[in-house]
Design brief:
By secondary structure, the protein is mostly helical. The protein has 3 domains: 101 residues, Arc Repressor Mutant, subunit A, CATH 1.10.10.2910; 55 residues, no CATH class; 61 residues, no CATH class. The protein is 50% helix and 7% strand. A hairpin with a 2-residue loop joins strand 2 and strand 3. Helix 6 runs antiparallel to helix 7 and helix 9 packs across helix 10. The chain is elongated, with a radius of gyration of 20 Å. It starts with 26 loop residues before the first helix and ends with a helix.
């Protein structure tokens, strides 16, 4: 199978509608707007980054919230790569993982935009500051710059050493806010208005209440008795039928 180009990695919709070359502000919200069900992993473990699956013609993505917000964002794009590239199951293993990583890298850091903002660089601090634009990790941007030919093999390795020495691979500089589900907030707001709680859902599914809460990004009741906005509920119903 012929692999998509960087340009094709920026096409995601119910039809072939390009996203353009600007950074994506929120990957989770984008996936949900296209009908993908996004949940958080119930297991508190760093061993599983994320995973995705097609079930009854609907796509699901599960994200690990124990990882950094930048890495979780990359994982969301990585799983999107699996959903759109490997639905037929013909590519598996290391090849599939490499393709999904290439997809995520190009999807989050578009070729033209990176070249426009960082046509050349000499210092790691330039990467540290630029990562805020694409909301990715320092390591991910360093790798992308090398793959685009902006930095040499020697410079890439030097930056890798500096990233390790600065502990940026452990604690991201300028950390971003974690992306969370917008759909689950709307769903739970609607259910709370009907006096349905996480406990009720857990009993119906025969699951621990804590597991239900973890699966929906820890969405908690604000404690108010306000009803959900009618426009929000209507939008939710439309998304459910169009997905």
């Amino acid at each position: 199978m012929r692999e998509p180009s960087d340009e094709n990695y920026r096409i995601i919709s119910n039809g072939p509608r390009p996203l353009g070359e600007k950074p994506i502000s929120n990957v989770v919200h984008l996936l949900e707007s296209k009908g993908i069900r996004v949940l958080s992993l119930a297991e508190n473990s760093k061993k599983v980054n994320a995973f995705s699956v097609w079930r009854n013609d609907k796509a699901y993505v599960f994200l690990n919230t124990m990882k950094s917000a930048e890495n979780s964002r990359f994982d969301a794009a990585h799983e999107l790569g699996h959903l759109v590239l490997h639905q037929d199951g013909k590519t598996t293993g290391r090849n599939a993982e490499d393709q999904a990583n290439r997809f995520a890298s190009a999807f989050l850091m578009p070729h033209a935009d990176v070249l426009a903002v960082l046509p050349r660089l000499n210092y790691l601090e330039q990467i540290v500051q630029a990562k805020k634009r694409w909301r990715v990790s320092v390591a991910a941007l360093n790798y992308r710059l090398h793959k685009l030919g902006i930095t040499s093999d020697w410079k890439y390795r030097d930056f890798c050493i500096q990233i390790s020495q600065s502990k940026y691979n452990v604690q991201e500089p300028h950390p971003i806010e974690r992306e969370k589900s917008l759909v689950w907030q709307k769903v739970m707001t609607s259910l709370w208005a009907e006096k349905t709680t996480q406990r009720d859902i857990a009993l119906a599914l025969d699951l621990p209440e804590s597991e239900v809460t973890t699966l929906i990004f820890g969405v908690l009741h604000s404690g108010g008795n306000e009803k959900p906005d009618s426009k929000q509920v209507l939008a939710l119903v439309k998304n459910e039928h169009s997905a």
